[in-house]
Design goal:
Layout lengths: L5 H9 L9 H9 L4 E5 L3 H8 L6 E11 L12 E5 L5 E6 L6 E4 L2 E3 L3 H9 L9 E3 L16 E9 L2 E8 L3 E8 L4 E5 L2 E3 L2 E3 L3 E6 L2 E9 L4 H19 L8 H10 L9
Parallel strand pairs: 6-7
Antiparallel strand pairs: 1-4, 2-3, 2-4, 5-10, 8-9, 9-15, 10-14, 11-12, 11-15, 13-14
Length: 271
């Protein structure tokens, strides 16, 4: 990003590695942003489980592979001549992060925190479990289930495009549908065809409150029209100027020459 928004800067700063021996903030970043797969040397697996996600075997080798010349090439002389080939003994691996959140999920426990800095500190805290609770920026339109229960439900994708996301949700209790896509106030959310309040979740993601039952949920990017009005105004001004230019009177050639002729010194009479 040439001009990264302030909240993105704060998010990455808070979830950046503390030191080479403590990479747990990066593990939380990958978890919150649903980074399920990571490429690296296979020998890095112990480091991932000891420094990025300590306390368990969160990372595992999904696929081992080797980098070899493409078919027909004996000796590769550029990166374009190389390819990846699955190989159980290969030195490289596609690691799976089993702690990564799904792209969309239902969470029946939430906490309201209207202070952005406090919300960011909370999701970065090692004691916070984003699989069990979501932090939202305002009170939802539903009442939470009784304490002690943590039922959720299922979410399935119907379609996904950069400006329109359609989901089917089956909630077993009142819940927050957390969509781990970047929050922006110009997104709109519709539940069963009715517009609902877009929630800012976990500091930087978006979501919506849903009641128990089956729901069709749609997130649509619908920017305000002020940008369109500005663009149309600029186009209209350009058209007006283009129409006026041909009618601006041009100075005649004589008018440009005469002043120069008047400035020439008079010649002295001959002889």
């Amino acid at each position: 990003m040439p001009r990264m928004p302030q909240d993105d800067q704060e998010y990455l700063r808070k979830l950046g590695p503390v030191s080479d021996s403590d990479l747990t903030p990066a593990g939380r970043l990958w978890q919150l942003t649903n980074a399920r797969y990571v490429l690296g040397m296979k020998a890095f697996l112990p480091i991932l489980n000891e420094r990025v996600a300590p306390g368990g075997e969160s990372f595992r080798v999904h696929t081992s592979f080797a980098i070899v010349p493409k078919p027909g090439i004996i000796e590769a002389r550029s990166y374009e001549e190389l390819t990846a080939v699955e190989n159980p003994d290969g030195p490289f691996a596609l690691f799976e992060n089993t702690q990564a959140l799904p792209r969309a999920l239902l969470i029946s426990k939430w906490q309201v925190n209207t202070n952005e800095e406090a919300a960011l500190n909370q999701i970065a805290d090692r004691g916070f479990d984003p699989k069990q609770m979501v932090i939202i920026d305002e009170n939802p339109s539903i009442v939470a289930a009784p304490a002690g229960t943590n039922t959720s439900g299922t979410v399935d994708y119907v379609s996904y495009s950069p400006k329109d996301v359609k989901l089917k949700a089956k909630a077993e209790a009142p819940a927050i549908l957390l969509l781990n896509d970047r929050y922006d106030p110009e997104w709109r959310v519709y539940v069963d065809g009715k517009q609902e309040k877009l929630l800012r979740c976990n500091y930087i993601m978006r979501g919506v409150a849903v009641g128990p039952g089956n729901h069709e949920v749609e997130f649509r990017y619908e920017p305000a029209l002020h940008g369109l009005y500005t663009t149309l105004g600029g186009v209209a001004l350009a058209l007006v100027l283009c129409c006026l230019v041909p009618f601006i009177p041009e100075r005649r050639e004589q008018e440009r020459i005469e002043p120069r002729e008047a400035q020439k010194p008079a010649r002295a009479p001959a002889g």
